Amino acid sequence: MKKPQGSFLTPGRSLAVILILAAVVRIVYLIAYQNLPIWDQLTVDNYYHNHWAQSIASGNLFGDTTYFRAPFYVFTLGALYALVGASLWAARLLGLVVGLVSIGLTWALGRKVFNNRVASTAALVQALFPVIIYFESELLLDSLFTMLLQATVYFLLCWQQTNRHHHAIAAGLFMGLAVITRPTALVLLPVILVYQLVVSDEFRFRLRTLGTVWLLMPLVILVGTVFIRNIAVASDPVLISSQGGINFYIGNNEEADGVTARLPEPLGNNWRIAEISYLAKLESGRKLRPGEISSFWTSKAIDWISSHPLGFATLYIKKCYYAFTDRLLSNNRNLERFFADIWLLHYNPLSFGWLLAFTVFGLVASLAGNPRARFFLLLIAMYVALISLFFFNTRFRLPLLPYFILLAGYGLFAIKPMLVSRTKRLLPAVVAALAVGVLSFFPVVSPAEVDSPMDETSTGLYHFANGNTDEALRYFRQARTVDSTYPEVNLNLGVAFLRSGKGDSSEYYLKQEMQFNPERPKSYVNLASLYLTDSLIDEAMVMAEKAVSLRPYDIVSNMLLFRAAARSRQIANDSLLRMYRSAAETTGDDIYVLFEAGRSFHVREVLVRAEMIYRQAIAAQPPPIETDDEAFERNFRNSPAAWNHKRSEAWLQIAYCHFRLGNFRESIAPLHKTIDLDPDCFNAYLNLVRTYAWQGDSVQADSVYQAFREQFPDSQQILQMKP
What we know:
Elements: H1 11-34, H2 44-57, H3 72-84, H4 88-113, H5 116-128, H6 130-136, H7 142-162, H8 165-179, H9 188-198, H10 201-208, H11 211-234, H12 244-250, H13 273-284, H14 290-307, H15 309-322, H16 335-340, H17 343-346, H18 352-365, H19 371-387, H20 401-421, H21 426-441, H22 454-465, H23 469-482, H24 489-499, H25 503-516, H26 522-533, H27 537-550, H28 555-567, H29 573-586, H30 591-603, H31 607-619, H32 640-661, H33 668-677, H34 682-694, H35 698-711, H36 716-719
Helix pairs in contact: 1-4, 1-5, 2-3, 4-5, 4-6, 4-7, 5-20, 7-8, 8-11, 9-10, 9-19, 12-14, 13-14, 14-15, 18-20, 18-21, 22-23, 23-24, 24-25, 24-26, 25-26, 26-27, 26-28, 27-28, 28-29, 28-30, 29-30, 30-31, 30-32, 31-32, 32-33, 33-34, 34-35
């Protein structure tokens, strides 16, 4: 019997075409992105993930303290870096692959819950959706989390349909991976519970069977592994990560606006883990583990909620509302401006407001008759309810977009049948869709971050870090026109003018910063630096002491204090020794602080003490990558390379101490150690050749000289030397 002729574009071929289109679109986008000057201008979380992944790739698998962030995305990125090397292209292509898998899962979910038309349409929309394309290429966990959540939902629905154990195991496995990517995936457990209690008799039967054990087993194993790791490494019984407490407080305090990661002043937007740890320690009266710090901030948030129930309720409703607005909201980058720079995003008409309108249309039309679609609706509702306890950001909605796209596709294909049948539900569906669409596109409550200068500031800091001071000044001036009193707006101008050698302008803006934000230490730190440059030692000392009094644990403040103290006639050596001991304790033996403390004694010719402190600096260990504030910065000064470079500087200073003491032979070993850590240290080679020559060891002098010439073949100074 002859088979009937089918369409060439079968469901499988449709998916293949959509995936090819999605891949082409994303590659075109990445090429356009690479041509922008901000290709390597990462945002705060991106830098953190990038640096942590590099640490994992170098072999730091177990880490040193409690996870601050859930680890699975970073370990995935770290595994990629270990295979192909660390690069932005590698990281962004990983996002591309994850995005293609996510599109495939959207298609699979569409076929399982609806039909082939909805599945293919939803996959096509996801392939072209601008927000999804953007976040896939950022070094953020959201795209991977979205894909893992989709895989969990898919296998849950398969398990509901077949009652096969391998589907339950697969659902539990992907749920576990999602949870250790972002713990909010635990919302799936109450979703399943509510669904089986009030929605689906069939699923209720499945959960009564042994399949529940198969579902929970991989979830418990994966989460339990992270839990045990936190106990083993840090003696800290934290289930997954310790950031939950501070995130909860960010969303629930007297200054919370619901859309920014801002803490009450003087912490503001640029708060650091060291700051929240110090404040928790100060108030509790003892040093706390990361899990205890998280509990401390959770308690602070609960205290505010209990004393301001109406304020909490109002703020919570606003956050729920923000979750359904079309507006693009981000903490560190103005997404609307970024999209305007890439035509593929700028002229793309797809946006969340349209998805929401069609979703509501389909819901009012006939979704009530599809129990599996109700699972999507329940997941959306409970996930929004959960994330609104914290604060809203456009990327936090990303995991829900595939379900909105599927529901919107269902609503789209419901229009024609309703028009043909002229059902009474048509008018209510249209009215509801229009009303929700208007509220999404034209919000009745606008987020408070509209006039924030954060985007200009972030771009200016990027140019400043790259040494382009003039361009940085241009953006810093733009930021000041947005809000001249905003924290660090005047500071950035002052620092840029300081680098440009314009001391008067620098002092003016730094004092403006000090006036508007007197409880922040950076203006005092930079004024101290300016005064040191002008040899105003007493004034520098006052500013540095003020900075340290505000943040005793701050690295730069303590470094400036030692630089000022070394040159101050008012500070005796005994006082300097007490300063060193205090700074070592409050900064956790930070190598940069200890180096400056050693230098301060070195300058004063207290050479034995200087050498002792230099050696303490060399023995110091970098802070745990999991909670290192510097990992959130572009210039990661606690990276292994930067740390070893500082150690090499300390060994070189020890050699200089021995030179001053006349112990030339004792300087040889420190000079060799300097070269081992930093083969590009010109002065180490130079002094080593001279030291061997002075000792009459011509063989060693000639050997080092030859290595010197090979390392610096173009140096005229070397060619003129005679070892």
